[in-house]
Amino acid sequence: MQPTCDNSGLIPVETALEALLSQAIGVTGTEAVDLNNALGRVLAQDIHSQIDVPPFNASAMDGYAFNSADIDYAVPCPISQRIAAGQQSSTVLAQGSAARIFTGAPLPDGADSVVMQEACSVQDNHVTLPENIKAGQFVRPRGCHVSQGAVILVHGTKLGPAAIALAASTGINNFTVYRRLKVALLTTGNELIEPGLPLKSGQIYNTNQYMLANMLTTLNCEVTSIGPVVDDAAAIKSALEQTARSCDVILSSGGVSVGDEDHIKAVVEALGKLDLWRIRIKPGKPLAFGHVLGKPFIGLPGNPVSSFVTFCLFARPFILKSQGLTQTAAKSYPVVTDFEQSRPDNRREYKRVSLVTNQNGQILAQPHGSQDSATLISTSHSDGLLCVPEGVTFKPGEVLQFTPYSELLS
User: For site-directed labelling of 165, which of 18, 283, 312, 345 has its Cα 20 to 30 A away?
Assistant: First the structure.
């Protein structure tokens, strides 16, 4: 890749994101939720295991439990008892005997090993065990997975299915979590009309409200949608004043550029302050961040793809940190490009790309359709965003960082 100089004067992506996150203040209110209602919530305190897991020495196989120091492998030994999962062994293992045992069942006292049933031969209630058995094999010792009192989930963790199952396995049936973040979503534009209504000349359907509302819902926010509000400074001022009273964060779409009908910047400055504006990014340059009546405000561009990309890269981590999460960065991965860029751009570009596998089994990134900031189909039908650093050119075969939508939309 060949870098070039950049004289745009726009705010670099890293600088903007760092400044944005420095202003994110986590919610402090908490509530209790049970296992059925914990998905996606953020832990407000560490979770400690209430028990050892497993709570007893357990068999890892269907087979026969025995004492490895007490068996004559050359002679069939009697089967003294049968133990299924959920059943306690009735007695201490008789000397020189084996217990028929099943996966997950507790070993009887005196047993230290298990041999799988496929390796044994059984006749007349006696079992012949194979030689050269390793003592302790196929046994899950008490507490080998989790020790009683150990921290299994830390404060600031987002609860997914695996984390909830882990807590349940230790006897936890409820969690103390942060309350949901309240986000007011404001869309602006004279041209916007609700889907389902007939379009008139000059109108377009209001897509951003539904895209952003669902992205916020995916992040477990409590969303209040307002708009579309007409491109009028007084109307936008009134809407912002109203929303600031009852939310934690204000998110808007449209009206943040420099046109005569773009009033967001001036209104935000009149009601508070604007900390960031115009980022060195493509698509999405006119991103704005500030405060309205003391509430954080993020102004996204009106073009749907610009709004989508800037939400993923800026609004999402800000919201996650405000929710109390300790991990806000989406994971990205190196991928090989299957296209070239012969002309450098002075902005960092996030291309919508699809991943394809060539005949050699190599995964390659290809741009999906038009990269125009109003072309939603390229977002819907692609796999993620490919980061093309500012001021570079490259040939096919270059390695760039790719972030899948599965990381950006959760």
Answer: 312
